Amino acid sequence: MNRTLDQLRIMFGGEPRKPPPEALSPGAKHLYATKKLTKKDFLILQEKERAQVAQQKWKKRRWAVLITVNLLFVLSYQLDVQLVEGSLSGSRFLGFHLIDLNAALQLMLAHKHVIVNLLIGTATIGAVWLVLGGRSFCSWVCPYHLLAEWAEALHVKLAEKKLVKDHPLHRGLRTVLWVVFALLAYGTGYTVYEAVSPTGIVSRALIYGPGVALLWIVALLAFEVLYSRRAWCRYLCPVGLTYGLVGTFSPVRVHYDLAKCAHEGECRKVCLVPHVLDHIFKGRATNEHLDVGPDCTRCGKCVDVCPGGALSFTVKGLSRSPKPLVIPPPPQPPQVTP
């Protein structure tokens, strides 16, 4: 429970903290004290990492799902088959109402009462992301995520040539914006956030055609390329906070195995939200087996690049439980016989 509360604190904008030595389990202490890697070991890990990056299994799966979901909306409208109607903000699937959790909250705040007609659609979407992990919506469904991922790749290339520099923002801004947009909806009676939501703007542009709102998307992507890497998704998006809360107790997690970790940090370099992988630093993991926190988008990029297999997808109750670490007893001093 203490770890869950600490992960929620970090999700709301708090900085990860190095745990005191007494917080580490005996297994974690033993691994930190005994695990040694030679130069040859690191060279082997580098070769494995290159091979895994070339394959990028989870990235290909994620892009396939994201493109398919958004293509269903586009084709259903263009071909008038009425399979999926509406957009990602609010839709009907085979006549069954669905609504984005953040959009539903904004509507209810704007109308100042619980809208009964939205409850079924909200509960359905809530149940789906409660099972899959809330922020998996961000990386597996949100169309802006794909655009931002391409912008991030461009930012990284420009940064390598020293043409741009990343300027991190405070992650607490997301919490502030969540409260601000909630108050605006309640005070104005209008869902202000939906007018600026990149998810809704890009989704509607794909389905119904481009509009002037796309200028905001272009400006946002330019800001991310030239100034702050992945600024919207990492520091600003209130939707990410909403879905992170929903997925706090999700059974689908990215699992961390300390015994397999070389602490080389490649996973953090590719992670959309690197603060959730703070425990990969030496001395930060309090146990030999940990689940990555609820702010994780389950994108799988860290799983793709981890050369030692320390990170993997697991499903609580279905995946095989990790074997407990057997700590050998300390050597006993030789007994002197008289």
Notes on the protein architecture:
The chain has 338 residues and is mostly helical. The chain folds into two domains: 2-58 and 251-315, no CATH class; 68-245, no CATH class. 53% of the residues lie in helices and 7% in strands. The chain is built from 16 helices and six strands. The protein has a three-stranded antiparallel beta sheet with strand order 1-2-3. Helix 5 packs parallel to helix 9, helix 8 packs parallel to helix 12 (214-226) and helix 9 crosses helix 14. The radius of gyration is 23 Å and the shape is globular.
Query: What's the count of strands?
Result: 6
How many DSSP helices? 16
- The radius of gyration computed from the alpha-carbon positions, rounded to a whole number of angstroms, is 23 Å
Beta-strand portion reads 5-15%
Q: Tell me about the biggest sheet?
A: 3 strands, antiparallel
Low-pLDDT residue intervals, each spanning 5 or more residues: none
Give the fraction of residues assigned to helices.
Answer: 40-55%
For the record, the count of structural domains works out to 2
Strand order of the largest sheet: 1-2-3
The secondary-structure class comes to mainly alpha
Between the first and last Cα atoms, what is the distance in angstroms?
Answer: 54 Å
Principal-axis shape equals globular
The average pLDDT is: 88
Topology order in helix (H) and strand (E) letters: HHHHEEEHHHHHHHHHHEHEHE
